[in-house]
Design brief:
5-stranded antiparallel β-sheet; alpha+beta
Length: about 750
Amino acid sequence: VKRAYSNISSQNCLSDVRLSPDGRHIHVIRPHLIQCQKHNDLVLSGNVPVVDVIYVPQSKPEDGASVLGVIFENGRVEFWKFLECRSGWHLLQTVDLCNSPRAKVSSVCMGQNFIIWCEERPPSENSNSVCSNFRFCICKKTIEVHEGGVSLGNVKIALHNNPRYTTVSSGDLVYLLPDMRENSSMGVLKVFLAWSPEHDTFKVHSACSCTIMKSSSKESDFKRLVADCIGLLSTINPSDICGFSPTGCGDLLLLLSTGWVCIIKRDGSLHHIYKLPDNCLSASGTQNSLKIYNEILALTIGKTLFLIDTKCGLELERISLKTEGLLFINTLDSHSPQMLSETGLFVVTQKPKPSPTLSEDSSALLVEAVFEEACKYYQQRSLSSTQLTVEKLKKGGMFQAPISLAAILRDYLSNQKTKTELRSLILLEDIKTSMVKASEKDLENYCESLVQQEICRLLSGELERENLQYLNSIFHLFPTYSWHAIQAVLHLRSNGEGLLSSKVPVELWKIILSPVQPTANFAHCNGQQKHTTVPVFELLCQSIFKFQPSWLPRFLELAQQQSGGSSKSSWGYSMKESSESLPLYKRALTVLPCKGTYQHLEVELLLCSERPKAIMQALRILIKQSQWEQVAQVAERFCRQSPLLNKEIFIALLCEVSQHRDLDPYLDLLWTLCPEDMTVTSILNIVLKNLPDSVQNSDPFEAHGRQVTIGLLKPLLRKVLQRETKPSQRYADILQSPTVPPLTPPRQHVVDLILMQGQR
């Protein structure tokens, strides 16, 4: 990170700072106008708040720098131009954007030859609080810079009766993003608009996977524009937009509250690029900025700068900053990330990580070292006092034993796999040498590169116990570097749709999924067993759980796919539980703490296993948590897996139905899951055995309360009776009886009957 120049006032928030497209000028929107000799105040319009500034390009590039427009809340615009000959900013002219003197400008942007703003209209006397939320409109004016000044066209209202929007220009499109300062209970905040000022067409989007809710429309009334989407609004729950940045070609970068960085393409498709570590946004505050430079995404979250490859989502670099920074694009150097902080303006240069090459000299030195070690090994075990040298060993002189040893070494060094191992060792030795000579600034990069090389080397061959302990120590001492190495070595990628992919050779998966060693301690709740040597799979799960917990179930699925193909490969592992080979899901569960704070992850891991016992365990956890909607989803999903599992799930849920009424909304689904071999007798026996003690003697036809009734069971019993070949008459009266008891006879008739009996 190279410092260019400094001393921006720390009293101003970075969100109030603007930089000119050529990077030559910094404009700060100051909350209070204070005269200062070191800065030029461009404001002449008194104490009216400044909304934003825009940069209007010259009609001819040779005319010089862009014209600066300062937009005030009352609609007044001051146009300024920097004149090199006079070494300062000079006012060109002042104009009004709005037609109404009572109107207010809430946001503004520059798009092609239009100036676009969101205007707040004064509320009418009869308007209520709901109507006041929709008193904004989107306006535009054509704008042109010429020698005499700036020319503006007439005001045209493109959209009215809309909520407050932030206008963001990207290429020939303008995105209208909801202002999060508004009432969050408004359903329309779930969507945002893409508008083409040239064609006056709108598209309705949301930050969900399926983004286009309404295709191109020329409707100018906001309420009618979103009327067709009202039904969908109640079914979606998109993430909040925490940050955004236009790409300049019609696309828009979005930072969502889930931690995902996405890009909205001009065709409406939503592409996920990178997922921040969990809780990163909440832990780092709200200050963030993001930009794309060529194919590199730069993202600042608090005091951390991330550099991401947009093609594959790989994290290239993570840089700690002393202060929070604001990214911007300099049109004169659009390939280099540039950042403004309170201490100055910086250019981020991506240094290539150390990647030493295998030279002839280093190769010869390593071969020499191999022969020297062989000489020492021979001398320690030889009875002869004659010293064996490398030259004699290479020539094959002296006795038969050195001749055989030399032949073995030559055969070893000629092997292709050996050359690869030697190359890895040379790279490691060169990196270690570079670390000794490196400065403090470069030491971190060398350390990360060394960790990645070591992990890659250890996973490229069979892991003995000593190497496994060494790998464990690397993960313990350098957890962050190890996490980065995992992503690089395994090529882990998340597509944003809940799927994880990895492109590595089968041999590497063989090492990762190697069976559990019987000498290791693998009790549940491994979080309490610090510094214990664990297999590679558990190591990877621990790292994923620490830095990206939401990836853990997806990684288990990925590992099971590789393990599932064992019947077709030579490295198959038995899926039967034994002391030497636990199921992968049980091995993944060992990384979760015992306190139960991550039970949602435990449920996901159990369900990912697709094993009957694990599925039932997950179902019981959900039942204990009263997550009835998830219970119904799990039952519907896994009852088709096998008849035995179907029956076990059905009985478990029928027991719950017998005890309370929380499953009433899902009874229709539950009855469809009834196994073929269930009879009316077995169903009633299960219900009676599981009735709460307090309702054993209650009225079976109660219409209210928490206990089950015959009316609730009637559809199930009818379905089962119809399925039986010989329906039993024993239950016919139950099915034919009404769901409510018959009406009580009038009391007068009963009295008359008693009197008649008395007369007799």
